[in-house]
Design brief:
Elements lengths: L1 H13 L4 H45 L4 H8 L18 E19 L8 E13 L5 E6 L3 E5 L2 E14 L9 E6 L14 E9 L13 E15 L2
Antiparallel strand pairs: 1-2, 1-8, 2-3, 3-4, 4-5, 5-6, 6-7, 7-8
Helix pairs in contact: 1-2
Length: 236
Amino acid sequence: MFADKQLLNLIKMYKKPNQLKKLFIITALFSTAFVACQKDATIENSSAEFHATSANASSSFEASGNSPAAHISASENLAIPASVNVPENLPNGNSRVATYYAVGVQKYKARIKAESDPEVYEWVFVAPEADLYDINNEKVGTHGAGPFWQISPLDLIFGQQFTPAKSSPSENPESIDWLLLMPKIGTTPTGIFDGVDYIQRIATKGGKAPSTPPSDINETIEVKYKAVYRFTKINL
């Protein structure tokens, strides 16, 4: 706007019959136009740099593999130990019903270690508490004591261990085991979980009880963890 006013004033001066003045005005006009072009170029370059920076930041985030979608996708390429793998169930096989990424905590409390004299304490698992995310990076449900996985009041499943339990230690000593579970006897999976026969916990990170035992019987702790949960049914 300032450059436009300058141009208008210079044009008015140009109409006055003074050749030296006209020469001065013509020079000033070119100078003003050059500055305006530079300003436009600066704005365009700044805008381009901003968008380039934003794109780089987005690419960096995606490359970091930190999103739920990235973890779910990566889990599809994992080698699953036989002890926690879903049986083939030939000839019809199985169908994956859902896959979720969990972010939350594993809760522990203190108890007296069996046959310890004098008494010492150890950690005992209480329950999980986590949010569930889908392949679109949307928080879609919760995972809690039972254990249960719930997407809505109509989409709910409870789980329990097989007998004997099916588990496999994580490669990371600070991470909880991988598991193969079944729907809890006496409950019926509903909604999206209808017909589910297997629940897998894989790709775990963290969540294991501390190696240092509790110092008080009333002590509790929450340990952060992440994991991928798969829900599979047998094809009939």
